[in-house]
Structures
1.
Amino acid sequence: MANARRAVQQAHERLQVRVFLDYLNRRHGANFVVIEEPNPPEAIIRSGRITRWVEVATAFWNPAWARELNSYATPGESLKSVGDGPFLGMTAESAASFASVVRAKLQKDSYAQLASKYGPGYLVVAVESPWINSTEELRAGWSASNLQDRGYFRSVYLTLRARGGHVVRLWRY
């Protein structure tokens, strides 16, 4: 099961990198392509003579939602439902999860070597919550106090589900 789950996670990460690169290339008139997938980070990308790196993180509504989504997507694994509810405070819980994921990545020292080799990278955070569809909802759970950004990322981008696809938003923290 672990190999099947890892394959699902890798497919998710590749999708997030692809969505981000489509956005980045369109927005900046670049032609970034994946040249390596060392994991971590999920991708080393290049456009012309510019080489960067991309790390992907996922902010789930809560751990039960993560289990449901992953069990549904993993071949041979039975569905582990989040349950019937009632659910309260879902937007706040999603926003808190997002803040925790982003803070952990921004404060993680293991990216120092990558940043030294390629410069600051891009952090792409997939927001996996049925309750969040805008950055304003995430702002409510975000407080920059106590954030010790190590400077390993040049910017943080979010991917949100929208209209049967994804939208990418720059996160200003």
2.
Amino acid sequence: MAARDETRAKEAIDRLNEEGREPGLGGVIWHELDLKDPRSAKESAERFISRERKLDILVNKAALSVITVLVHPGSNFMVRSRIPAFGNVQALNADGVGESMAVNYLGPYIFTKTLLPLLESTASLDGADVRIINVGSNGYCYAKYLEYGSKEAWNHTFK
């Protein structure tokens, strides 16, 4: 189970073990993964490959909600959303990538892309049934409240 927080991951693993799993399915271990930094996601996948011989299933489930303010370090660029129920103020990282973009898209992409050779080699084994599952959310439903149809609508919404 890949996660940022070891304590929370191990609590989840304990719950899985308490609820019982079918015999012969192997164990669940914690694997450190922080998707906020794309380089860290790649390093995490490389560590996994160095320790494991196969990977049967990869579930990409991490997500952050829509942000309310983007601020790029060293610039005056700022976007404000009028959807107050979403997220907190958040800065772009040194690469100019917002935390939600890194966690929701870029990190999982790099993590998965780096793990592909292991997934492919596992898939070549007799009886293998390899899967990549990407879990989404209904956050896209809120996009209808944003006006991006024209520059004027954008400026009116975010001034």
